[in-house]
Amino acid sequence: MKNVLFSAALVLSAALTPTAMAQVETPHADKVPMSLLHLGVASSYYSPYAFVVDKQARELTVWTQDAGGYRIVEKFPADLGRKDGDKRSSGDHRTPEGVYFLLEHLSGPGLDFSQYGKRAFTTNYPNFFDRREGKTGTGIWLHAIPDSTPLTRGSRGCVVVRNEVIEKLQQYVRLQKTPLLIEPSIELIEASALQAEQQMLTAALESWRTAWEAKNIDNYINHYSNEFRSMNMDRDQWKRYKGNLNSKYEKISVRLSRPVLLRFRERIIARFIQHYSSDHHADIGEKTVYLKKEAEGFKIVGEEWVEDKSQLASDELERAALAPNRATAAN
């Protein structure tokens, strides 16, 4: 899958915004995949769409979320790896299971039409959790195949659809932001239950934010798992590092946008815009927090941050900032 010409890698997603595409109006769903905790509702930064693959049903479904809830937009048959089960290593011909994102768009004469059809989208396999488990392999794509090829051919681990389908799917893709969730079989839960879990996780992130802002190092580190690793530091080293920073600053301000929340089993990926400022430093960018369910609830096992000074990032923060969780007394 190497030596492919990359075309319109980032331009495509900017042109294909949800407001520019003809949306299919379908009823809101009473039951929703438990992986879709919260999408980018009315966001220009995050995607309001998600691709959900059911390996058992051999089906790719496009879901969206708006102010009224979740809806199924499209549903298509899909092909998968030649062998069953979760991908573990390079060359095992299995399709991975988890939360991934569509990164780059491939098309043009450099793309082998007989193998990948008209276009393909790369993914970030192996993701954070895959790497921690020692999974290997590359080149896991969402791509098409010609009409002359059976959709039961079996791939080397990719998710495969027809050419006409990949052409439809591209309108829902916001590169770097549109998730591809691959499940052994889709588990549907009541929309109300999904909302309750989303609120719980959002409250946990708000508690983490306020502890950080208050420089309460013990409450702050309580949100972290003993398995935490980031910037080559474990949990204890992270506590000392953050405690040392706290001692240097008189005041810290931390603002977060409303998070995109995606789940695979007991693992959560939360993505949001974060604006940090102190009396010595300020920055803005996208934070990705990885959480794992433990006996005491969901704990942070890793986090990543990428600077983003774009107007889109600033607008997202202003549009969907998490309100500080302050109690008000009534007299």
Structure description:
By secondary structure, the chain is an alpha+beta fold. Helix content is 22%, strand content 34%. It has helices spanning 11-15, 113-116, 128-132, 163-169, 191-213, 217-221, 235-248, 311-319; strands at 31-33, 36-38, 49-54, 59-66, 69-77, 98-107, 119-123, 141-145, 159-162, 179-183, 188-190, 229-230, 233-234, 252-256, 260-264, 267-278, 282-294, 297-307. A hairpin with a 2-residue loop joins strand 4 and strand 5. It is globular, with a radius of gyration of 21 Å.
Question: Which secondary structure elements does this structure contain, and how are they paired or packed?
Answer:
Layout: H1 11-15, E1 31-33, E2 36-38, E3 49-54, E4 59-66, E5 69-77, E6 98-107, H2 113-116, E7 119-123, H3 128-132, E8 141-145, E9 159-162, H4 163-169, E10 179-183, E11 188-190, H5 191-213, H6 217-221, E12 229-230, E13 233-234, H7 235-248, E14 252-256, E15 260-264, E16 267-278, E17 282-294, E18 297-307, H8 311-319
Parallel strand pairs: 3-10, 8-9
Antiparallel strand pairs: 1-11, 2-15, 3-4, 4-5, 6-7, 6-10, 7-8, 12-13, 14-16, 15-16, 16-17, 17-18
Secondary structure tally: strands: 18
Strand order of the largest sheet: 5-4-3-10-6-7-8-9
Proportion of residues in β-strands:
25-35%
* Residue runs with pLDDT of under 50 for 5 or more positions: 1-22, 324-331
SS-based structural class? Answer: alpha+beta
- Average pLDDT works out at 90
Shape: globular
Instruction: Please count the helical segments.
Output: 8
Major sheet details = 8 strands, mixed
Name the helix and strand elements from N-terminus to C-terminus, one letter apiece.
Answer: HEEEEEEHEHEEHEEHHEEHEEEEEH
Helix content: 10-25%
**How far do the termini sit from each other?**
67 Å
